[in-house]
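Let us practice reading a record.
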Amino acid sequence: MTGSPPRRRGGLGVVGRRLVQFVLDEMVVFVPMLLLAIAVVVLFHPRGPGLLTFLKVVLYTMLALDFLGLWFVTVWWPYRHNGQTPAMRWLRLRIVTLEGAHPSLGAFAVRELLMMVDGFAWGLAGIVVMLVTRRRQRFGDVVARTVVVRVPRHRTDDPDDPGDSADQSAFPGPDGDLGAVAGPQLALGRADVGLDGGQRHHE
C-alpha cells in the first residue's frame, strides 16, 4: 500500500547487542577469576582464626585481577583485533571512529575509563545516553569520538574480500531495529550523514 511505513526487521539492534556483549565480556573475565578463587580457597585455606584474613586476601586479589582482565579485554584486545572484544566478534559488532577508521589505543582507554560514568546506577546512565544519542553512543563513545557499528554478514567469491569474516573492513548495513548505523553506501565520516540511516541537507 502506497504511503505505508516500512516494516522494521526484528532483532536486538545495536543497543540490545551491546548490552548482551557487555555481559558476555564481563563473564569472559569474571568466571575464570571466580573459579580460580574457589580453587585457591578449597585447596589452600588455613584452619583457625586466619581463615577470614585469607578469604579477604583472595577476594581483593580476585577483584584486582578482574579489573586488569577487563582492561585487557576491552582496551588492549579490541585495539589489537580490529576494534572487537571477544563478545563483539561473536555478536558481529565493531568499534570505529566517527570517520570509520580504527581507534587509537588512547581512545579505547578513554572509553573504558568512562565506564565509571556510563556504569552509574547499574549501567542505566549508559543505556539512557545510548538511547537518546543519534549514533547510539554511550558517554565514553562521545568523548572518545567512537561509535559501535554492526558488521555485515555476506558471502562473496572474491578472494580479496574476506566475506563472512568478522575481520572485514566493510561498512555495516542499516540496523533494522534502532536505525543506529548508516547504509553501506554512506561514508561514516561525512558530517551530513547520520548513523540512523538518515541524511541531513546543508542549509
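A brief commentary: Residues 13-44 form the longest helix (32 residues).
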